[in-house]
Design a protein that fits this description.
Penicillin binding protein transpeptidase fold; 11 helices
Length: about 240
């Protein structure tokens, strides 16, 4: 019996070796193709480090999809300098989305660890722990799809952005492209849409409400005022 098992294993070895070789070739091909893709989409960071705020990929997608969804509101997007955005709006954003924004280099390893521990405790895998920098990258260059390749591209581009843009500029980018409701992008457009005021006049309460809408702004926002939204407003408000 033992001899038969040994013989069968011996004759299967060439097949195993061929399978391993093929697997390595496929893996190498994927790495080469993905590297080529990243090179192809690698941005000129100077465009994003200074000058006017560019339309994000999410905004362009909304414009395109709006033709197929005529019931959607028109695009609301009015980018402004971070210098006119109240400091309490910036604080509310950081409290809500990325408390360690100023201390990490784009990727919050502590947050990732917490998310993985949560995933393991729930026996399921969800994406989470994204920093403001990662969300900025996702909005500008990528898509909302949830797959390992998109997440990997997000990581690589985030590191590139952190090395080329200041924290102040990253905040300015995000505050001007984040979605705050269906077709509402950026705090200035959101302030106009919900309260008819410019971003410069946002109160502490209004800033907290905008920050509270960020996890799912189409469903939870200052107009829908869902239970989840109000609970999040209360949670963020404790830091003011």
């Amino acid at each position: 019996m033992f001899f038969n098992k040994l013989t069968n294993t011996f004759f299967k070895l060439p097949t195993v070796v061929k399978t391993l070789k093929l697997s390595w070739k496929i893996l190498l091909l994927i790495i080469v193709m993905d590297t080529g893709y990243l090179i192809g989409i690698w941005p000129d960071w100077k465009i994003y480090a200074e000058g006017p705020i560019q339309q994000s990929n999410f905004i362009r997608n909304y414009i395109s999809e709006h033709y197929q969804h005529r019931d959607w509101p028109r695009l609301h997007w009015r980018p402004v300098s971070i210098n006119v955005i109240p400091k309490h709006m910036i604080r509310a954003l950081i409290v809500a989305e990325d408390a360690r924004f100023y201390s990490h280099s784009g990727i919050d390893t502590d947050a990732l660890k917490e998310v993985m521990e949560y995933n393991l405790s729930k026996n399921r895998f969800i994406y989470g722990g994204s920093t403001i920098s990662q969300q900025t990258i996702k909005n500008i260059f990528l898509s909302p799809s949830r797959n390992p390749f998109r997440k990997w591209h997000e990581f690589v581009l985030t590191i590139g952005m952190e090395r080329n843009l200041s924290k102040q500029r990253i905040l300015e980018q995000y505050l001007n492209i984040a979605e705050f409701g269906r077709g509402v992008y950026g705090v200035n457009a959101a302030a106009q849409y919900y309260w008819g005021i410019p971003a410069s006049r946002l109160s502490v309460r209004q800033s907290i409400e905008l920050a509270a809408s960020l996890p799912a702004p189409v469903k939870h926002n200052p107009k829908t005022r869902t239970r989840f939204f109000l609970k999040r407003v209360k949670k963020i408000g404790r830091y003011f």
